[in-house]
Design a protein that fits this description.
The structure holds two protein chains of two kinds. Chain A is an all-beta fold. Helices cover 0% and strands 48% of the residues of chain A. Chain A has a single domain, classed as Rieske [2Fe-2S] iron-sulphur domain (Rieske Iron-sulfur Protein, 3-layer Sandwich). Chain A is built from no helices and ten strands. By secondary structure, chain B is an alpha/beta fold. Among the domains of chain B are: 170 residues, FAD/NAD(P)-binding domain, CATH 3.50.50; 115 residues, FAD/NAD(P)-binding domain (3-Layer(bba) Sandwich); 66 residues, Arc Repressor Mutant, subunit A, CATH 1.10.10; 62 residues, no CATH class; 156 residues, Sulfite Reductase Hemoprotein, domain 1. Chain B is built from 27 helices and 37 strands. A five-stranded parallel sheet of chain B has the order 3-2-1-7-19, covered by helices on one side. In chain B, helix 19 crosses helix 25. The termini of chain B are far apart. In chain B, 47% of the residues are buried. The chains are: A mainly beta, B alpha/beta. The interface between A and B is large, with 37 and 34 residues.
Amino acid sequence: MTTDIWTPVCKADDILPNTGVCALVDGRHIALFRVGADRFFAIDNIDPKSGASVLSRGLVGNLGERMVVASPLYKNHFDLQTGECLELPECSVKAYAVRQVEGQLAVAHG
Amino acid sequence: MNIVVIGHGMVGHQFLETLAELKIPGAKVTVLCEEPRPAYDRVHLSEFFAGKTAEDLSLVQPGFFEATGFDLRLNCKVKAIERRDHTVITADGEVIPYDKLVMATGSYPFVPNVPGKDRPNCFVYRTIEDLEGMKAAGAKAKVGVVVGGGLLGLECAKALKDLGVETHVVEFAPRLMAVQVDEGGGRILRSKIEALGVKVHTGCNTVNITDGGSAVHRMVFADGSHLETDMIVFSAGIRARDELGRQSALAIGALGGVAIDDHCRASDRSVYAIGECASWNDKTFGLVAPGYDMAKVAARHLAGDSTATFAGADMSTKLKLLGVDVASIGDAQGKTPHCRSFHYTDELRQTYKKIVVSEDGKKLLGAVLVGDAEEYGTLLQMALNGIALPADPEFLILPSSDGKAKPGLGADALPDTAQICSCNSVSKAQICAAVGNGVTDIAGMKACTKAGATCGGCVPLVTQVMKAEMAKRGMAVNNHICEHFPHSRQELYHLVRVGNIHTFEELLAQHGQGMGCDICKPAAASVLASCWNDFVLKPQLAALQDSNDYYLGNIQKDGTYSVVPRMPGGEVTPDGLIAVGTVAKKYGLYTKVTGGARVDMFGARLEQLPLIWEELIAAGFESGHAYGKSLRTVKSCVGSTWCRYGVDDSVGLAVELENRYKGLRAPHKIKFGVSGCTRECAEAQGKDVGVIATEKGWNLYVCGNGGMKPRHAELIASDLTKTALIALIDRFLMFYVRTADRLQRTSTWRDNLEGGLDYLKAVLIEDSLGLGQELETQMQHVVDTYQCEWKTAVTTPEVRQRFRTFVNSDAADTRIVFVEERGQIRPAKPEEKAEEKAST
């Protein structure tokens, strides 16, 4: 993780609780989710099944122990913490670390 | 092998269907039908007067004859059978050879030999042609008489009532339905039917029919009294059509009918007889179920299965006659020596119940139920399977005073061989096997086994057996919407409404657990919208909406959205069209006219949506809710305004209905159609709500569907005024919104509704649950609180700013790439995108 670069993205209040937004980070599309008031998660925004940049527009929730987002196109679920696709593990995406400093969110990528 | 079938009625067609399944190699099948149309559903013939067409009543699946290669000849009456030559001779003189002959000639209505019976406007009740004649006469008649107060006579009385004539029933016996019902039951039946405005005359022997004074005919009775009427329908029983059997010297049963053995063979081994024309052990059967059995036995025997035998039939029946439930089981009259009976009469509610039990009180022999036949399924199974009765059998029919369930009959008590659906002879074992194959709802059960698909009387029992089997197999018989709520959608609706819950957080805190998911959130969003109709993107609600509702557009495969402005009734001004065209051109959108009679624009990026909608709103358009589980479109034909055939203004009504119900959130999308005349150019009968203009008002059809599983809508009410029509649609839609499952269209909802169309009519029209006013009020609230979601979205800054591709950049999504096709854009395919990348 030492090679990670932290890029500031937006304010926490730019994201409505329990929804996501898409951020452009060094040419990469990253979906940023806010769960409840102050938990944040980031995964790739591109849905591998369709190739469309849409995961941030999915519904957030939990399935059992896991926090997930459902792709708005084909409804497959992605683990917010790991990026794993529950239905099709081969379609999993990358997850990124997020931190909040004084109301500002930053994403780690390397 | 040449197989010739004489007659193509319900039983004849069942024979053909069975034959088609058996696929006998080298069989050449010829069907000779004297009627001008193929087999139709005579059991539901009276529905012809309630708006069903001959096509609706047809029993023949489209393509059946093409697929099987069976040769159906209509208008082809058989004159004679030449058994020595193995031929039949048609009325046209054609000689057709057979190896095996199947007689399915049915029966004819018996007309008592009364002078004057052949006068004009005297009918029988058997074929669609008879009904067409009655319809024509009924249009001019004020008074109509049915001769015969049996089962068919009362069906016929309903038909006359539907024609709008003053209806009388004249019965020779001292009570109605003398065969199936005893004296006590007959009395209640009579008073219920009279309360419906039908005049009943029992013990009446017609001796002459002459010219009337105030009407066309005068019927003179044996006691010297008389009755004046404009039309007469004879429905005094049926007789087997055995004339070809007699002509060809086949053995005839003691009471008529071609005598058959247990394999349904006539006295000539090359000839079979099935259905109402056949006599087994000197008995004929005037119900469809035994006919179907015979048809299957004959087909299997003909295919070489010598074990196929007909073993008689149970003549128990349950019917709804003029809206009155009547059921008769086994020894209804108590003729078994030393039997005992229990009676219960409720003159307030107008119900009569009787059971007949064996001398030792252990077995149920028969029953009569009038006014309420709820116990039919249980009692029938007890009688058929010889199930031991409880110690106090009277409690089987007595109302329970303490709200406790009656001593029912658990599905487990039934043997596997118990016949659950007698129309299609489906056993308990078959229903359980279907559950094993994955069937879990009643619509699926009907499709898979045909159980409950004919008269529908057994549906509650089928459901019970199915659920018991599912429980036994450990299949969750729970209808919980998902892991977060131990409730069905219907229950959630109730909890939201009664608990005055306005947010998902409250709902989850009070009735659920966890965070929610992509199943319960949109369902809750829909329920909250149906109840309170708040703006769907306000902060407390926005996070519940799925992508389509969140961005007020339909997401496409490449992540772009469609833009669909509402065009009520499909009506749009030239300026409106120009505005749509201008916007589409400016933003480079693909345009298409849709099946819903409006213009869709495709290829809009997230950040373009508010700009596009701002321009559309300025041009006078509103959201078309193409993205919502809500009212989509009301399709219309041009109606009486322009069309030379139109009888009413269908476009005007369509516009009004679309404007009334736009924005209503429902369990699934809803489509309407309004046709200006019976030609039905708007295809209203394929819609959730269909309206067709008549000379006298509007007919309302409900629960139709196109799509994957087409379903004809059913007529629920006729000749309504516009006010009555709208009140009824209000009730219908709100009742659907309140009780359907998530993502259940009205057609599946209706197929799974216990009690079916009759139940729906009772709730919506007769107001049996006392909900009518409440449903109308709730709908009026939705109508009064309508807002164009797009207008609110573009004018509310914190909502508008959510329509952006990137939270941290104004750049566009470069992954969205279009290519041109037929002069418009379309999303690039992956290989086309790769090509473009390579060349830059």
